[in-house]
Amino acid sequence: MAPSRAAADGKLFGFNMFADAPRPLNTQYRCYSVSMLPGNERQDVERGGKIIMPPSALDQLSRLHILFPMLFKLTNKRTNRITHCGVLEFVADEGKVYLPYWMMHNLLLEEGDFIQIESISLPVATFSRFQPQSVDFLDITNPKAVLENGLRSFACLTTGDVIAIKYNQRIYELCVLETKPGPAVSIIECDMNVEFAPPVGYKEPERVKKPDEEMVVDPAELMPEPTGFVAFRGEGNRLDGKKRKDQASSSKTDVKVTYQRGVPDYNYKIGTLRFIRNSRPPSKE
Questions:
Q1: With helix as H, strand as E and coil as C, how does the chain read?
Q2: Which family does it belong to (predicted)?
Q3: Overall fold of domain 127-196
Q4: What is the pLDDT of residue 158?
């Protein structure tokens, strides 16, 4: 098929006027956990969301004109598990890639399994929602600051992943429940709102009723018994002198004094106690 007129004009002067669209990197590697990486222990890889790839991958990415930041889609074709990540270094042995343990656990990968790696472009994150996998996460004073510091080692987030954050010599796992504007987002140089769901196993504390809520005392019951004449406190009698039928079962009804609020002592001085006694003058006899 003959080349198009536009393509011919573009190459008329010995150079291509139309830049080729970037092609994605799509290849297979054997994956291993970071603990299998030769050399010193790499904790910076273990507590982040980036992988180590071989130098040949960098050569391919350069020839394919991949745009920065370099983000990748990882697929375990055996289980159809998918996640996304960034790249930290290109120092792995040829044909191998090294992943954080939590990433291999999410993808259900064993040491030496094949993994499909494809370069990809992701939208910038605007919102994410996490669920701690332990109630111990509630002991952290400022969880958002701890999460923000931990996410600095990540390049992207995928809905459904369980990521690991290290804080105070402890590993806290958080499930990514939701990300916006898509199920996978880039978190490099972004302004992202963060929310937390209740941790796994968390129960709302039961509301304990206070004693004053359980027993409400009527102020009239605290009033002293009435003294002196009280109207309608006596008992009725029959005119024929016979006993009433309900006399055995009848009982005296207690008449309660109407509750009245006391008058405050406006002359009271703080720090003084005043004892009031109803004393009678001694009899002269």
A1: CCCCHHHHHHCCCCCCCCCCCCCCCEEEEEEEEHHHCCCCCCHHHHCCCEEECCHHHHHHHHHCCCCCCCEEEEEECCCCEEEEEEEEECCCCCCEEEECHHHHHHCCCCCCCEEEEEEECCCECCEEEEEECCHHHHHCCCHHHHHHHHHHHCCEEECCCEEEEEECCEEEEEEEEEEECCCEEECCCCCCEEEECCCCCCCCCCCCCCHHHHCCCCHHHHCCCCCCCCCCCCCCCCCCCCCCCCCCCCCCCCCCCCCCCCCCCCCCCCCCCCCCCCCCCCCCC
A2: Belongs to the UFD1 family.
A3: Vcp-like ATPase; Chain A, domain 2 (3.10.330)
A4: 95
